[in-house]
């Protein structure tokens, strides 16, 4: 289709993987903080508190695949 990354289309991935660093342009990705998510899950499972929403920050690794 003749599309160019990132000039015509942006690509973002989840679960930050080193593979994205090998691509050209490098892949922009969002990391999944498994350890922090697990810690929060264990805390909530052992807590009497009821939380409607739990947010864990997800780091953004900016590569060349977005404009």
Describe the protein in words.
With 67 residues, the protein is an alpha+beta fold. It has helices at residues 19-22, 34-45; strands at 12-14, 28-30, 60-61. It has one domain (1-49). It has a 3-stranded mixed beta sheet with strand order 1-2-3, with no helix packed on it. The longest helix has 12 residues, at 34-45. The two termini are 19 Å apart. The model has no long low-confidence stretch (mean pLDDT 91).
Please tag this protein with its features:
single chain; 67 residues
Radius of gyration, whole Å:
17 Å
What's the number of domains?
Answer: 1
Which regions have little confidence, pLDDT < 50, spanning 5+ residues? none
SSE-based structural type: alpha+beta
Alpha-carbon distance between the two ends: 19 Å
Task: Summarize model confidence as the mean pLDDT.
Answer: 91
> What overall form do the CA principal axes indicate?
elongated
> Could you give the order of the helices and strands?
EHEHE
* Number of β-strand runs: 3
Side-by-side strand order of the widest sheet: 1-2-3
Number of helices: 2
Range of strand content: 5-15%
Can you give the helix content as a percent range? 10-25%
Task: Give the topology, please.
Layout: E1 12-14, H1 19-22, E2 28-30, H2 34-45, E3 60-61
Parallel strand pairs: 1-2
Antiparallel strand pairs: 2-3
């Amino acid at each position: 289709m003749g599309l160019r990354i990132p000039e015509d289309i942006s690509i973002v991935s989840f679960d930050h993987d080193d593979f994205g660093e090998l691509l050209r342009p490098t892949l922009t990705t969002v990391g999944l903080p498994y350890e922090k998510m697990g810690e929060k899950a264990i805390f909530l499972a052992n807590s009497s508190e009821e939380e409607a929403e739990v947010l864990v920050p997800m780091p953004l690794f900016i590569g060349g695949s977005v404009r």
